[in-house]
């Protein structure tokens, strides 16, 4: 879990340090603006923008019941962020699995990608799709979900 927060914490620390230097140089406006940029970058690179993750086994069980896709992702992955942002509110209808928190999730992703931890990997009806187009993923969400 801690690994997911390294980049966001580093961004907050660096932004704070740069802002402190700018404040001591007498430029509080620039310090505030730069700190805000660093905080936004930290937020985007954190697990906070993703729906709550569940375990791979639970996600697969739920998917078998409701037919909704399972998304395997990891914090800091720009392709995962792209998928999440482009899905918008419909992202909540998917089952999200953070592979850095779930060993079964890592195993499922490796099995689908020739031993590689390539994410996002979206499993629809038992078939894995690596880094699919967000529009296609949106189409896979059943209207009844």
Automatic annotation (TrEMBL):
The chain crosses the membrane at residues 29-50. Pfam families: Glutaredoxin (PF00462). The keyword Magnesium does not apply. Keywords: Membrane, Signal, Transmembrane, Transmembrane helix. One of its GO terms (biological process) is cell redox homeostasis. Residues 70-127 form the Glutaredoxin domain. The keyword tRNA-binding does not apply. InterPro entries: Glutaredoxin (IPR002109), Grx-like_ET (IPR051548), Thioredoxin-like_sf (IPR036249). Residues 1-19 form the signal peptide. Residues 126-145 are annotated as: Disordered. GO terms for molecular function: electron transfer activity. PANTHER family: GLUTAREDOXIN, GLUTAREDOXIN-LIKE PROTEIN NRDH. This is Glutaredoxin domain-containing protein. It comes from Streptomyces albireticuli.
């Amino acid at each position: 879990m801690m690994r997911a927060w390294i980049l966001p914490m580093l961004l907050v620390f660096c932004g704070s340090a740069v802002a402190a230097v700018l404040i001591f140089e007498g430029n509080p406006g620039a310090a505030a603006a730069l700190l805000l940029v660093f905080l936004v970058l930290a937020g985007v690179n954190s697990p906070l923008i993703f729906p709550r993750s569940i375990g791979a086994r639970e996600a697969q069980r739920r998917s078998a019941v409701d037919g909704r896709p399972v998304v395997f992702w990891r914090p800091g992955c720009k392709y995962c962020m792209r998928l999440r942002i482009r899905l918008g509110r419909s992202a909540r209808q998917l089952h999200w699995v953070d592979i850095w928190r779930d060993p079964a999730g890592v195993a499922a992703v490796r099995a689908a990608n020739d031993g590689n931890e390539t994410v996002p990997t979206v499993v629809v009806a038992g078939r894995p799709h690596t880094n699919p187009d967000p529009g296609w993923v949106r189409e896979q969400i059943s209207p009844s979900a």
